[in-house]
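Researcher: Structure for this, please.
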Amino acid sequence: MTYLKAEGVTVDYPIMDVSHRSFKKDALSWVTGGRIGETQRHHLTIRALDNVSLDILPGQRIGLLGHNGSGKSTFLKVMAQVYWPTTGSLKSEGKITSLLDLTLGMEVEATGYENIYLRGAILGVKPQDIKKTVQDIAEFSGLGDYLKLPLRTYSSGMLVRLGFSISTAFPADIILMDEWLGVGDAQFQEQANKRLHEMTSNASILVLASHSPDLINSVCNRCIRLEHGKIVEDFPIEGTP
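Model: Predicted structure, token format:
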């Protein structure tokens, strides 16, 4: 059975080689979330998540709400296994696709076609399965002969289009998103929205972090609100999928 289970997840970011006094003074001006602490060796730390426990089951569309620094993005990265908890554990069952960084693992000196394989490997897709999907990815991206050229010749918009086309080409049981993706021009955006809706509808679990209550209410059926790295609210959203 597909699931995500967080048990007492705490994430501390160590801050090295800075003056405690000057850093604390600066940090208070820009950290709206995590708390400042110290390790036993007197290194400063930022506590981004604080003893978070949560069960996410099939059919749930989770919306993560909270201000900047509340722990939303950190929690997504723990679920994506980009970060490991300082204490506690994150257990999961099912194929996870993270849409947090669409160009992670891509190489600027490699061609677009080569990067389809590189990005696909980062997503955990087997080479033979990537090969079956290359033509579909190429057609969806609309990049044509540019796929034969190295990424350093791409504009930033073209790069994101390719990353999106690859990242959403493979089915997943669990999808992790930081805001609803907006990529490319109006025509491509329409295609992208259609694919995102299809992908999230077919997934067993969706976790979407956003600052927008309206977006959460329209897409999700359960809302988790974080403050200072802690869950402060967990409630169902009525009338959503």
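Researcher: Any notable elements?
Model: The first strand starts at residue 3 and ends at 15. Residues 186-202 form the longest helix (17 residues).
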